[in-house]
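Mods, move this if it's the wrong board.
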Amino acid sequence: MHRVRPTLRALRDDLKLPIPSARVPLETISHPLLDKASERFTDPGTAHERIRAIDDVVLFKVKVQRWRGAVWTDDPDAEIRTWLVAAGTREDGSSDDFYAALETSGKTARARYNVEHDQSLTTDTYTAHLLPNHDDHDRYRLEAATRFTLRLNSTICALARGSLHDGHEHASDFPGFRLGVQIRADDGNETYVAIRITGSVPSDLTAMILSRVPGCEADGWFPEYTLPERHLLPAEQAWSNIMDPKAAAELLTDS
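Not the wrong board. Structure tokens:
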């Protein structure tokens, strides 16, 4: 199911929830309002009620129990399509009613903006400061990088473990490249590792991959122009090193 993602400000200040580590995508956080918003905005054909009092951007209402929220939808090609940008609780007949308070704060922000800028806003409200900002997009990219790193770590160990069992190359596909690992032990009890990367990857990604092969010295990698069982293909690079036998044993034990 498509999940609605909260902005960092809404998560921290409105929902009063802690910011988790980058291992946790913000759209996976469970909260009654976030769960309801995700349910409502899964189907693009579902009709939504606009917050009419806000006229500088299009915000939609989401309601569950006493919780009230404002949802903003980004460009369809954006990495994150739907955001919860503000939240609060319902207080009927009170000045603390969420949507009334949102309108009041929008008008106050608009007045402040017009005082601080030469060109005045023609809208009644100003709520652009609630929308996702650089911190929100940086957080999203950090989560993506963390997911990639965790997957890379586990995949390298799995490929190495498989090759330790049969001596053949084991490979896996990543977006934009293919990673292969082959490990062989010679009669002198040295364990040779060959890493094969197929695809156009930046040098820092190559260094990142090599640094995550267990039991290999960081400065022990050397470029190779053939693999143990074949020559390199176009757009391939290969590196070799010696693996610490204790690390190899630990990999097999972990299986």
